Structure formats: structure tokens, C-alpha cells
């Protein structure tokens, strides 16, 4: 049973997510989300190259993705009504303590479209799809001030391959208690 304070916090959090979801969809009007296909791949890579520092693939999180298939039903692209790519999000499966976890990222929005709610739309829509598909927990490496609005919190006791700042290792439970008792290094998985 949740205490009164925790229950109130949970209700408030649910309300913030519902409002955030509505706001993101309104702000990102005229933007269409769909699953990424093979034909989108080069354009998505170019967007990531533009939005991230050179050498992004040297990051330790890329070692977890090498040779592993993406979770295709959750990798989304956002186009405007002229068909111009505005943003993209990808997911990979990884393993922590023998449990399957979704690794969120990269996510990027074209610099000319940032601050319009597109990032929020991609986050909320893909996380809704993940929940609907039965995924239980999500992990990412990123800035807590951005991701906490989607419910992500610092994950204690879960280690990304070094060098990763532990304060940037964030998790979200898509099912109550899904991260409880799950500790250890993040490892590559064979699922794909
Ligand atoms: C991070 C990113 C995906 C957000 O997409 P976006 O479409 O601009 O985001 P939204 O419009 O949904 O949200 C904008 C809000 O997020 C805030 N925000 C964006 N990046 C942030 C960050 N790194 N830390 C804290 N807040 C951030 C903005 O200040 C803005 O705040 P406001 O709503 O109070 O005005 C986009 O800025 C981007 O592609 N950045 C470069 C690549 C990157 O850093 N990817 C994330 C890797 S961890």
C-alpha cells in the first residue's frame, strides 16, 4: 500500500505526464510520427551527426549497441508536412542483472525545430508504445533536468560501461516496481 504522501505524489506525477503529453502533441502539430524504415537510415544518421559532437560512436553506450538489432517498433522518425525530417529516436535492448531493459537513445531534434515540443512528442509516444508492447523498464544516459519531466530518475547501482558519469544514468519503470532490486553492470544482449 502506498502512503498518503506517496499516493499524492504519484497522482501529481500522472497528471503532469497527461498534461505534458497533451502539450507536446499540441506544440508538435503538423508533425507526423512513424516507425523508422531502412530507407530513413542514412537521413537519421546524418541528423545524429549534426546534433551530437563528432565521434559520437566512440561513446561507451555504442559498445552496447554494436551488432545488436534495434527495437524497430519503437524507433520513430518525425516529419513535417513537407516530408522534412525533424527528429528521431531509437531504442536497443540491453541486459541488467539478467533482466531485459530498453536503452533509449539516441534522440535528436534538428536545431531549427528544437524547443517546439518535438523531443517531448517523440519521448512520450515511443514510451507509450513501449508500455503497450509490454516493455517494463527503460534506461538512458542523459541530462536529468530534461528527462525527469518524463519520469526518469537517477538509477543507483546500475553501471554503464566506463567512462559514464553515474549521475547521467537514468531509469524509468513502465510497470510499478520494475527497477526494484535490479542492480549491476549494463550488458549487451543478443535479442534483436
Ligand atoms: C534534447 C532534445 C532532443 C530536446 O528536443 P526538443 O524538441 O528541443 O525538446 P522539447 O521542445 O520537447 O522541450 C524543450 C524543453 O526542454 C529543455 N531542454 C532541452 N534540452 C535540455 C537539456 N539538455 N537539459 C535540460 N533541459 C533541456 C528546453 O530548455 C525546453 O524547456 P522549456 O519547455 O521549459 O522551454 C534536442 O534539444 C536535441 O536534439 N539536442 C541535441 C541532441 C541531444 O542532446 N540529445 C539528447 C542526448 S542525451
Helix content: 25-40%
CATH C-level class: Alpha Beta
Number of domains: 1
Low-confidence stretches: none
Major sheet summary line: 9 strands, mixed
CATH topology: Aminopeptidase
CATH architecture: 3-Layer(aba) Sandwich
Spatial gap, N to C terminus: 37 Å
Alpha plus pi helix count? 5
Q: Tell me the strand percentage band.
A: 25-35%
- The H/E string reads HEHHEEEHEHEEEE
Q: Given the C-alpha coordinates, what overall shape results?
A: globular
DSSP strand tally: 9
CATH homologous superfamily grouping? Gcn5-related N-acetyltransferase (GNAT)
Q: What structural class do you assign from the helix and strand content?
A: alpha+beta
Can you give the mean pLDDT?
A: 89
Task: Name the ligand types.
Answer: coenzyme A
Radius of gyration: 17 Å
What is the structure about, briefly put?
By secondary structure, the protein is an alpha+beta fold. Helices cover 30% and strands 27% of the residues.
Describe the structure.
The chain is of the alpha+beta class. It has one domain (4-188): Gcn5-related N-acetyltransferase (GNAT) (Aminopeptidase, 3-Layer(aba) Sandwich). Helix content is 30%, strand content 27%. It is built from five helices and nine strands. Strands 1, 2, 3, 4, 5, 6, 7, 8 and 9 form a nine-stranded mixed sheet that branches. α4 links the parallel β4 and β5. The radius of gyration is 17 Å and the shape is globular. The model has no long low-confidence stretch (mean pLDDT 89). Bound molecules: coenzyme A. Residues 51-52, 107-109, 114-120, 142-143, 145-146 line the site of coenzyme A (COA).
